[in-house]
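Example 137, ligand zinc ion.
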Amino acid sequence: MKLAWVAGHRLFGRRYVLPHPVATALEHVFGEPVGSVTVIEHSLYARIHPGMSATTRPNRILLSISGSEFVANPDLLLHEYFHVLRQWGTGRLTRWRYLIESTRLGYWANAYEQEAREFVAAASEGYRRYLRNLNLI
Ligand SMILES: [Zn+2]
């Protein structure tokens, strides 16, 4: 069973469940449930993409870091959930479109990344405030 453990936990990562207040604050910011999004921590897939701490797929966030490091970085958290809920989730983002955008404009300037950064800039403070208030209750 050692191999299975290695495969399940080291190579392909494992599922991370968001702390309840974090999920609640995300739902407040996005105005929709986030429970259908699976977060995988220590994912090999994410780790083979150098310089990236996370990558997204429909309903899925693959982290090269731990889940607790992820939630400790609200801007990264909001950024990745934005990709999943507002871009993959609406069908606007596909692997093919992302590839074309990135080939044309690179990582920083591509429209999906710009949009995600703009969302984070607008939503970050509200998210932090909401989470702080939740944690005070
Ligand atoms: Zn991004």
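Summary: The mean pLDDT is 90.
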